[in-house]
Amino acid sequence: MNDRHNEPKPDVISGRNPVSEAIRSNRPIDKILVARGEKSGAVVGILAKARDRQILVKEVDRTKLDFLSGSAPHQGIVALAAAKEYDTVEDIFAYAESRNEPPFIVVLDELEDPHNLGAIIRTAECTGVHGVIIPKRRSATLSYTVGKASAGAIEYMRVARVTNIPNLIDDLKARGVWVYGADMNGTDYEQCDMSGACAVVIGNEGKGISRLVREKCDVIVSLPMKGKINSLNASVAAGVLLYHAMKGRE
Q1: What is the spatial distance between Cα 76 and Cα 87, in angstroms, rounded to a whole number?
Q2: In which domain, by residue range, is 70 found?
Q3: Contact assessment for residue 84 and residue 132, using Cβ atoms and an 8 Å cutoff
Q4: How does residue 229 score in pLDDT terms, banded at 50, 70 and 90?
Q5: Quick check: 190 and 244 in contact, CB under 8 A?
Q6: Which helix (H) or strand (E) holds 5?
Q7: pTM for the whole thing?
Q8: DSSP label of 8
Q9: Are residues 233 and 168 in the same domain?
Q10: DSSP string covering 5-66
Q11: Fewer CB atoms inside 10 Å of the end CB: C or N, the chain?
């Protein structure tokens, strides 16, 4: 009987040659993980090619590579493949323009749970969102888990990655997009008119949106809470706000 724990994950590319070929073929790659202290010539050459393609490279303990690779030999390097190619912020604006609609965007501030990301992408697609924007670091990425959680919506949603979310918000505001941050102690969402060009910012599952991101938002919106728990799951909160915005755009 095969031990399923020893099987590599579907989005894991293990070993020097497979990783090198994935880079060469322009396969969508979220990040490359390299064993801490690994300095062999082959690995150094692979990392140089990765950086040329602006692929994130992170050093990790070899035990993490062992876990990700299962029984497959990793030779000190692993690539995590993306389920699809990332788009750009310009792609999102171009899509909104092609539909003759004011931009409708979701911004995720360090959302970490891939199931939440998948669920938000699914809801975003259903509510007519033009694109989802995530940070390059400290965020769930377009893994196969996210693709599965999105129930296929990942194929239709433009997802862009940016280096800095606060800078992105400045850019969105300069383009005439009104930015709504979901957080506690804000305006009741039902009192907000989100019918024009808007971006909804959803924060980290535990910490919410960061202080700087909160300060950059035009409006902080909150959902009323009547129970003993004072917060909703990130994807549920996103769903409520996106459907409210969709109704205002009809």
Answers
A1: 30
A2: 4-81
A3: no
A4: low
A5: yes
A6: none
A7: 0.83
A8: P
A9: yes
A10: GGSPPTTEEESHHHHHHHHHTT--EEEEEEETT---HHHHHHHHHHHHTT-EEEEE-HHHHH
A11: N
Q: Which amino acid is at 214?
A: R
**Domain identity same for 28 and 136:** no
Same-domain check for residues 180 and 211 = yes
Q: Are residues 73 and 112 in the same domain?
A: no
Instruction: Answer for the pair 105, 172: CB distance below 8 angstroms, yes or no.
Output: yes
Boundary (domain end) residue, out of 81, 116, 147 = 81
- The C-alpha torsion from 129 through 235 and 143 to 130, rounded to 10°, is 10
Q: Which residues contact 103 (CB under 8 A, 6 or more apart)?
A: 92, 93, 96, 130, 175, 177, 197, 198, 199
In degrees rounded to 5, what are phi and psi of residue 241? -70, -40
Residue 42 belongs to a domain with what CATH number? 3.30.1330.30
**Residue pLDDT, tens place only, 13-56:** 888 888 898 888 888 888 899 998 887 888 889 999 888 888 88
Same domain, 211 and 166: yes
203 in the same domain as 113:
yes
